[in-house]
Amino acid sequence: MKEPMTFCSSESGFLPKCHRYYLKQEIAESKELFKNPKHPYTKALLAAIPVPDISMRHKEIEIIKGEITSTVNPKPGCRFAMRCPYASDICNEPHELSQISTGHFVARAKPL
Predict the structure, then answer these.
(1) HSE (CB half, 13 Å, CA atoms) of 45?
(2) Contact, 62 vs 17, CB < 8 A?
(3) Average pLDDT over every residue of 14-23
(4) 90 lies in some domain
(5) For residue 91, how many C-alpha atoms fall within 13 Å in the half-sphere facing its CB?
(6) Quick count: other Cβ atoms within 10 Å of Cβ 25?
(7) pLDDT (0 to 100) of residue 112
(8) Given this model, what pLDDT does residue 23 score?
(9) Residue 104: phi, psi to the nearest 5?
C-alpha cells in the first residue's frame, strides 16, 4: 500500500514548497496548507501532530477510523470518503481538483 507523501522542494527560497498529496485530495504550499486546510483528511492529519507543550500532555488525539481506500484500484469520488465523518452520497461521485486560491487545490464534492 502506498503511503500519503509530502513532497518538498526549496525552489521558493526561504520557505520550502510542500504539497500534501493523498490520492490527489489537496495540494498547496506548506504555509498555506497549515494555515488554511480545506480537505477533512488534511485537517485530521494536522490535528494529529503532537504539540511539544507539557500542558497538552493529556490532549486526546483523534484517530482516523475506517477502511483505507485502495491506491491500486480506488473507487470513484473522494478517496477519504470511507473514513470521513462528514461523507455523504455526493462524496462517492467523481470530482477533480479545483483551485480555491492561488496555488491551493482541493478535490472535494461538498462546498467549502
Answers:
(1) 18
(2) no
(3) 50
(4) yes
(5) 15
(6) 21
(7) 60
(8) 60
(9) -115, 115
Residue 19 has pLDDT above 70, yes or no: no
Q: Cβ neighbours of residue 77 under 8 Å, at least 6 residues apart?
A: 91, 92, 93, 94, 95, 109
Q: Is there a domain that residue 112 lies in?
A: no
Residue range 32-76, pLDDT digits in tens: 888 999 888 888 888 877 778 888 777 777 778 888 888 788 888
Q: What is the pLDDT of residue 18?
A: 53
Residue 69 cell numbers, joined? 481506500
Query: Is residue 8 within 8 Å of residue 17, measured between CB atoms?
Result: yes
64, three cell numbers: 482516523
What DSSP string describes 41-63? HHHHHHHTSPP--GGGTTPPPPP
Question: Residue 13 pLDDT > 50, yes or no?
Answer: no
Number of domains within the chain: 1
| Host domain of residue 22 | 5-48+62-106
Q: Is residue 110 a contact partner of residue 91, using CB atoms and an 8 Å limit? A: yes
